[in-house]
Write a structure and sequence with these properties.
2 copies of one chain form a homodimer. Chain A contains 15 helices and 12 strands. Chain A is of the alpha/beta class. Chains A and B meet through helix 4, helix 9 and helix 14 of A and helix 4, helix 9 and helix 14 of B. Chain A binds a DNA duplex through helix 2 and helix 4. Chains A, B: Pfam families: LacI, Peripla_BP_4.
DNA sequence: CTGTTAGCGCATTCAA
DNA sequence: TTGAATGCGCTAACAG
């Protein structure tokens, strides 16, 4: 039978309350007493029963998710996954709130983070816009003792406890190798469609992509990046235009959202052209395009995994517990038409 | 505040014990009383607090994992992941035991399953050898009310509750498309190295691979399957021999284990040949080979995820709870040298 | 500074 | 067929 607080109390010759005090590092225990209890804990190999503790405390974890108010399938999916987590709240003792802030707007994000500092939730998850002010606001939360997890796009250099998202440099590199290998030594131009160079994840994907292309596929020439602001209309316009003007394009890498527009442009302008296309994020649109051959491969991050992982990590940090690193690693999913979920 | 058993008891005008009886469908309750309680449960929207229930019961979940005693990196990895889960046993209220049985030996597996029927653990996970007797033994366990999960290799047609492993037909198809695209229209022969056609996962991979190859890459001709019994020595011999005898081989698909031997053969016999190679399972050996260019892509199943998933599912089934399907889906990981974990 | 006591939500004797 | 009482492991008043 595993030891309980009673066993420790007996072994240390103190009462339950005192054991509880040292266990939860509360003040009001003489140094020697504390030592005695700590020794007993170590000797008996005590591990606290978190479930019982939570029951006694009636603990719930108020968590806040801050998302950009972007109208694209990926963000809708992320939102849906959080709502699914909300539906499980009772069993998981969470109390989750979703807050939307204008996209690509650091100041709005900062304001929200400052309000949260007052609310003192058990944890905060945010899709970070990469700006110094945001970093400062996040650091402030962390210093106040509130666990913070970045979601989808990281905030390197900040004190955030954890990043729940894919390695975007690796994603870009993978896209490059896939595209290069699929094109098998052909010579030509590659168009690149991004959302915005203001968000870190897109910048990193581009960086990884360009690096591998330059190093391993010199026969392929990268055109300058098209910024579609993750908006299907803008993306459509940009791609249609590029295809019309440039006959040498043989490959496209779409590293942001708004792929609806890309796909429409391809179906209108490129039915008769041999084009190899790699895109990010599995949505209803990209899935259909992969199946009908318009897209050759999709790189994806599992939004459900990201949300569940963020919640697990925030709860663990709130309790000072450790996590299973391998379980929290968000992998880069590669989908061909054969291994779709 | 969410309703508790007390609230139900009050609402139904009965005692806690009676509420508990209907909650756990125990006998000794008049029909009318039962109805009253059930109405109260529904009206108040009661959901049982599983953590509290487990505390009161002092519940632990004795689980048994049955693995083939195969000496390859993948099985070693699987074993290690189970041991990692054992290390977490205290917190997760599990009591996990690993049993090894001779590989590819249905009768040994059946004997073990029959012994388990007597022990009545909370759940059983097994790497299934595909045979009618095994199916019958599994069905027997299920009918006895013991949750059963197949791991890595499934047992279709049996009553097992869940399969924690990848879709191997999809894996084979994906391997074919990757190989075909990487070879970009070249014409030549493809060597296939399997472990044994007696295990379902290998048969399914081959099936998927052959289907896509026949349909989409007619210029590539599949040689007859080499069975390496997941043994590095045998694999080495078979591949070295094939390469020596056949100059037309331009691609290799290794769908089983024992890749150490394959890699050694490639380094000895094929340094001067342009060979595209796809293999299964990420191990220290295949990882190194991917990085140095000997292998072009690795298809993988995350053993850690499989083990954690099997445990979650077995616990849930033992309690009659539902699982999050997306969380329990084991995906096919595709690794290029750029996205290694 | 330390101890006593009463729960958290549920399961389980033992009586009635 | 039903109910009262006790305890699971832990926390948190409230006394001392």
């Amino acid at each position: 039978m595993r030891p309980t607080v009673h066993d420790i109390a007996a072994a240390a010759g103190v009462s339950l309350a005192t054991v509880d005090r040292v266990l939860n590092q509360r003040p009001g225990v003489r140094h020697v007493t504390r030592e005695k209890v700590e020794t007993a804990i170590r000797d008996l190999g005590y591990v606290r029963d978190v479930a019982a503790a939570n029951l006694a405390k009636g603990r719930v974890y108020p968590l806040t998710f801050i998302l950009p108010a972007s109208d694209n399938s990926f963000m809708h999916g992320l939102n849906a996954e959080i709502r699914a987590a909300i539906a499980r709240s009772v069993a998981e003792r969470t109390d989750i709130r979703i807050v939307e802030v204008p996209a690509f707007d650091p100041q709005a994000l900062v304001r929200e983070l400052e309000m949260l500092a007052a609310e003192k939730p058990s944890g905060v998850a945010l899709v970070a816009t990469d700006a110094p002010d945001v970093r400062a606001a996040v650091d402030r939360l962390v210093k106040d003792g509130i666990p913070v997890v970045t979601l989808v796009s990281d905030l390197t250099g900040s004190l955030r406890h954890h990043y729940a998202g894919v390695d975007n440099i690796a994603a870009g590199r993978t896209a490059a190798r896939l595209l290069g290998r699929f094109l098998g030594g052909a010579k030509g131009e590659i168009a690149i469609l991004a959302g915005s160079m203001l968000v870190r994840d897109h910048r990193e994907r581009l960086e990884g992509f360009a690096a591998v292309m330059a190093q391993e596929f010199p026969a392929l020439h990268l055109l300058s990046v098209l910024e579609g602001r993750d908006d299907p209309e803008v993306a459509h316009m940009l791609i249609a235009d590029a295809l019309a003007k440039n006959d040498g394009i043989i490959g496209i890498y779409s590293l942001g959202a708004g792929n609806r527009g890309l796909i429409r442009a391809l179906k209108e302008k490129a039915v008769d052209r041999a084009l190899t296309v790699i895109a990010h994020e599995l949505t209803a649109h990209t899935r259909a395009a992969l199946l009908d051959g318009t897209i050759d491969a999709i790189l994806n991050q599992d939004a459900g995994h990201e949300v569940r992982s963020a919640i697990r990590v925030l709860k663990a940090k709130a309790d000072g517990l450790s996590v299973i690193d391998a379980q929290e690693r968000i992998r880069l999913d590669i989908f061909l038409k054969d291994n779709l979920p």
